[in-house]
Amino acid sequence: MKPKPITVLVVDDHTVVRRGIVALLSTEAGIQVVGEAANGTEAIERAHALTPQVILMDLVMPGMDGVEATAQIIARNPDAQVLVLTSFGSDAKLFPAVRAGAVGYLLKDTSPEELVKAIRRTAAGESPLNPSVARRLLRELAHEERPGPRAEALSQRETEVLRLLARGLGNEEIGTQLFISEATVRTHVSSILSKLGVSNRTQAALYALREGLATIE
What we know:
Blueprint: E1 6-11, H1 15-25, E2 31-37, H2 40-50, E3 54-58, H3 66-76, E4 82-86, H4 91-100, E5 104-107, H5 112-123, H6 131-142, H7 156-166, H8 171-178, H9 182-196, H10 201-210
Parallel strand pairs: 1-2, 1-3, 3-4, 4-5
């Protein structure tokens, strides 16, 4: 039986960019664009109506921006998978997007192949995190003085999983590295998120990077 395609909502206020992404994804087997939105308000409405697996979200848009749209989408549906597509000009919105619950981050100069790969990883519950974006997020985190979660709460195996997760490895790759099943990796990731008090893999990865448990390679 043929698997169902990954459904995607593309959100960007630039028509040329949006249509270009839609055209690219239309050529990919196993991916189906179910809708488009030109601003945050439209994104919220269409995310609710279409329930796509992945929402490809621009951050800088007129009216309601991508950060507020992400927050409202996730408030309505905590399982929504928002993948941010950002540029160097939108740094100030990156960290708020982390707080809002976005699970992955790409730069707008990302190759088509990397974009498609990131969408597939996001649909699989993983967190694509561009190293350049991660560095800027970490600089922002360095200015925060709020108390963070305690790594001591993690078991040795969970710490190993967290280190690999922070390097951008997916569940299958982590399982291969640690000689455990993909299902076991998912169990560890779920426990890590719970113990650290974070809502997604990206927040866990940023914690690991900030605390020196992993490095950006």
